[in-house]
Specification:
By secondary structure, the protein is an alpha/beta fold. About 40% of the residues lie in helices and about 15% in strands. The protein is built from nine helices and eight strands.
Length: about 260
């Protein structure tokens, strides 16, 4: 039977590669995207079964609407969408934009879709609400740490409940994607252009850890990244991780499954 996979942020970069390869392998892929017109253009280029549905992770009402429209089994959820070093901004619900988009939105989405999930959750990891001194890169790093901790706690609860669903985290290493191109400031963009040319791997290589975690037999709470030096480049392999956090901001609690 055809497996159904939801990929968030599937209009470009790692998400587009992930969606393309999963659809080509025979999965039915749901492109969960903020810009549906862009999503439809991408869908028209893909081989296989795909559909486009609106989802803005920076707006919890959009997250709830997306989840409410899902009433069929879902094999894999790929939490790929994210933002990086953009200027200071707030989500529709008042959260700092990076933590809201990169972590709180996916946290709420995963929990709301959990009753329909049958396989696995793959989350791309690449003052928690940044109320004081604002640093775009610090805020981005905190949102990614929160992704790791979410994966660990989700797996603990899934295992405790006897659920067959497993949770996995991945990171792409240093991959050249549109995410970096949207960083704030000319100097930052110039610096990234130089380091991308010297150090980055392609978005196709950067998507391999996500595809690996979505399709290969792995233990719950696995963390996959490139196997090269410093985990910057290479093929999928075990990645190193770091510790601690809590969840109280979205109004969505972990479900008992």
């Amino acid at each position: 039977m055809c497996r159904t996979v939801v990929v968030t942020g599937a209009t470009s970069g790692l998400g587009a590669v992930t969606a393309r390869e999963l659809a080509r392998a025979g999965a039915h892929v749901v492109l969960a995207v903020r810009d549906t017109a862009w999503g439809e253009r991408l869908a028209a280029t893909l081989t296989g079964s795909v559909e486009v549905r609106p989802l803005d992770l920076a707006d919890l009402s959009s997250v709830r609407a997306f989840a409410a429209g899902r009433d069929r089994p879902l094999d894999v959820l790929v939490n790929n969408a994210g933002v990086m070093a953009i200027p200071e901004a707030r989500t529709a619900d008042g959260f700092e934009m990076r933590i809201g988009t990169n972590h709180l939105g996916p946290f709420a989405l995963t929990n709301l879709l959990l009753p329909h999930l049958t396989g696995r959750v793959v989350t791309v990891v690449d003052d928690i609400n940044s109320e004081r001194a604002y640093s775009p890169w610090r805020a981005y790093q905190q949102s990614k740490l929160a992704n790791l901790l979410f994966t660990r706690e989700l797996q603990r609860r899934l295992s405790e409940s006897g659920s067959p669903v497993t949770a996995h985290a991945v990171h792409p290493g240093y991959a050249a994607t549109d995410l970096q191109g949207r960083s704030a400031g000319t100097a930052q963009r110039l610096m990234l252009a130089v380091t991308n040319r010297l150090m980055a791997q392609s978005d196709a290589m950067g998507a391999l850890p996500t595809l690996y975690a979505a399709t290969q037999p792995l233990p719950g709470n696995s963390y996959t990244g490139p196997d090269g030096r410093g985990e910057l480049r290479g093929h999928p392999g075990p990645a190193r991780r770091s510790p601690h956090a809590e969840e109280r901001l979205t109004g969505v609690r972990f479900r008992r499954v």
